[in-house]
């Protein structure tokens, strides 16, 4: 199972507390995680990536194992610790201050 | 006794203010969708318990929310949680606003005028305004940025574009500083095939065939900030309003100028009259007096606050030209809030109640047609929209 950590507002939308666990087809890829996440929580469709183009929204980032995976193509394999469920896949909203 | 429900959209959530018909004591519920921008929230005239809300954020985009119990609980239509993660997702996606580029209807129009004079792709950003059908609770219209009109006939689960609108010179539409938003949708109660819409900064448009075809209705408008002041396209219309008993008479607050048409937009004339400034955002019509209209003059397009720091609603009982300031109960010194285009509404009680919200977080009510005002709440986040339901 792959562990996904969502930002506050997406946890509220999806009505989940804590991490989301997903069963992702192997080999687990970035796009595969998002597909599984949206299938399990349809309310998240359009909030992380655009409906039509499936492009990541500008202010959303993907981190895992201290790496920024935001610019990786969707068919990129996830780091092995994430695929194995030892490390979470983080969906992060960009910082805004003021 | 009737119940009044005031639906308030703010920068950081939605609030619902409720009172009985006396409009003296109010209860405040919210924030709903805390932390999100609520551009607009409106109830269905056909089923007042059904509310639609536009929830959005720069991070996570657009969400459409719907309530079937007057705002106590909300669901995202089409986004219902699945009994099993292996079930196919529902076909609905209430936040899926895809522009129609099909040859039959979209034509395909893919670009509009950009700030630098080049053509720019149409990109969905958010829903500015939701207008439920007058007769069918499953049907509603959504005005979006970049400007287009969408319609749902399944309670908000799915939306499709009425692409004929963008065929009305869409390639010439250009965003104002606030974006290219379709912000006003008026349905003619005597003819459901007739709708008016307004776009900043393209102008006003009308359909007489239920949204298939549209025409610009901007003759008579003059705008000094465009190369040709009386061009057919390019006017920054801030808001339009009509009285249900006279749907051919439409009032307009333009970027500058208060305008009026008595032939459904075929020709407009100015009725700014003795206003201290004719810049502003909202305009609305008294529920029982079709010639009584309200505006909130703002100093200028460079200084978005009331002249002299005095918050004044102006009322005309003659359909324009002759205006009187309404100040009782409103701050008359050191007030520098703005009132945005969708932040004024009226109830249908007698006497008519007038409501507006400010960027300073106040929501004011006048239970007597504007003669006196009282703040229902004072410290909400900046108010983006105010709508009122009068429930028997």
Task: Write a short abstract of this structure.
By secondary structure, chain A is an alpha+beta fold. In chain A, 22% of the residues lie in helices and 19% in strands.
Secondary-structure blueprint:
The complex is a heterodimer of chains A (98) and B (392).
Chain A: E1 2-5, H1 8-14, E2 20-22, H2 30-40, E3 60-64, E4 67-68, H3 80-83, E5 89-93
Chain B: E1 3-10, E2 13-20, E3 27-32, E4 37-44, E5 47-57, E6 61-67, E7 111-113, E8 119-121, E9 126-132, E10 140-145, E11 148-152, E12 160-161, E13 181-187, E14 195-200, E15 203-207, E16 215-216, E17 237-242, E18 250-254, E19 258-261, E20 268-270, E21 279-285, E22 293-298, E23 313-316, E24 324-326, E25 344-346, E26 354-357, E27 363-366, E28 374-377, E29 383-391
Antiparallel strand pairs in B: 1-2, 1-29, 2-3, 4-5, 5-6, 7-8, 9-10, 10-11, 11-12, 13-14, 14-15, 15-16, 17-18, 18-19, 19-20, 21-22, 22-23, 23-24, 25-26, 26-27, 27-28
Q: Can you walk through the features of this model?
A:
The complex is a heterodimer of chains A (98) and B (392). Chain A has a single domain, classed as Roll (Ubiquitin-like (UB roll)), CATH 3.10.20. Chain A contains three helices and five strands; from the N terminus they run E-H-E-H-E-E-H-E. Chain A has helices spanning 8-14, 30-40, 80-83; strands at residues 2-5, 20-22, 60-64, 67-68, 89-93. The mean pLDDT of chain A is 93. With 392 residues, chain B is mainly beta. Chain B has a single domain, classed as Methylamine Dehydrogenase, Chain H. Chain B has a four-stranded antiparallel beta sheet with strand order 3-2-1-29, with no helix packed on it. Chain B has a four-stranded antiparallel beta sheet with strand order 9-10-11-12, with no helix packed on it. Chain B has a four-stranded antiparallel beta sheet with strand order 13-14-15-16, with no helix packed on it. Chain B is globular and about 55 Å long. The chains are: A alpha+beta (98), B mainly beta (392). Chains A and B meet through helix 1 and helix 2 of A and strand 6 of B.
């Amino acid at each position: 199972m792959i562990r996904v950590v969502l930002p506050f507002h997406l946890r509220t939308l999806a009505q989940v507390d804590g991490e989301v666990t997903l069963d992702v087809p192997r080999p687990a890829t970035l796009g595969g995680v998002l597909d599984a996440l949206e299938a399990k929580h349809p309310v998240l469709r359009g909030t992380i990536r655009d409906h039509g183009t499936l492009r990541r929204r500008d202010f959303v980032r993907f981190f895992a194992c201290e790496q920024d995976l935001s610019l990786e193509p969707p068919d990129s394999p996830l780091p092995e610790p994430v695929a194995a469920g030892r490390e979470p896949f983080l969906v992060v909203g960009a910082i805004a201050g003021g | 006794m009737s119940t009044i429900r005031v639906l308030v959209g703010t920068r950081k959530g939605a609030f619902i203010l409720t009172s009985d018909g006396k409009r003296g004591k109010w209860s405040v519920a919210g924030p709903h969708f805390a932390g999100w921008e609520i551009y607009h929230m409106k109830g269905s005239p056909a089923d007042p318990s059904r509310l639609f809300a536009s929830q959005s954020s720069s991070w996570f985009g657009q969400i459409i929310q719907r309530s079937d119990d007057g705002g106590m609980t909300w669901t995202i239509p089409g986004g219902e949680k699945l009994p099993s993660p292996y079930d196919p997702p529902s076909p609905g996606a209430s936040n899926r606003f895809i522009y129609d580029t099909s040859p039959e209807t979209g034509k395909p129009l893919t670009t509009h005028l950009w700030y630098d004079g080049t053509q720019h792709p149409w990109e969905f950003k958010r829903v500015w305004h939701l207008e439920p059908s007058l007769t069918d609770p499953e049907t509603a219209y959504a005005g979006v940025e970049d400007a287009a009109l969408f319609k749902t006939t399944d309670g908000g689960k799915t939306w499709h574009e009425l692409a004929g609108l963008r065929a009305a010179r869409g390639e010439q539409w250009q965003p104002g500083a606030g974006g290219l938003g379709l912000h006003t949708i008026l349905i003619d109660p005597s003819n459901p095939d007739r709708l008016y819409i307004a776009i900043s900064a393209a102008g006003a448009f009308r359909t007489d065939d239920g949204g298939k075809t549209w025409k610009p209705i901007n003759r008579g408008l003059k705008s000094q900030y465009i190369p040709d002041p009386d061009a057919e396209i390019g006017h920054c219309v801030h808001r339009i309003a009509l009285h249900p008993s006279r749907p051919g008479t439409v009032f307009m607050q333009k970027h500058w100028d208060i305008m009026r048409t008595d032939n459904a937009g075929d020709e407009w004339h100015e009725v700014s009259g003795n206003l201290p400034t004719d810049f502003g955002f909202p305009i609305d019509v008294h529920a029982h007096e079709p010639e009584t209209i309200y505006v909130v003059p703002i100093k200028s397009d460079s200084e978005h606050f009331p002249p002299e720091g005095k918050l004044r609603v102006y009322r005309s009982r003659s359909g324009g030209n002759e205006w009187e300031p309404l100040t009782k109960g409103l701050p008359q010194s050191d007030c520098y809030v703005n009132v945005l285009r969708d932040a004024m509404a009226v109830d249908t009680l007698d006497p008519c109640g007038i409501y507006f919200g400010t960027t300073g977080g106040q929501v004011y009510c006048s239970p007597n047609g504007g003669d006196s005002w009282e703040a229902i709440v004072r410290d909400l986040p900046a108010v983006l929209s105010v709508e009122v339901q009068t429930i028997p």
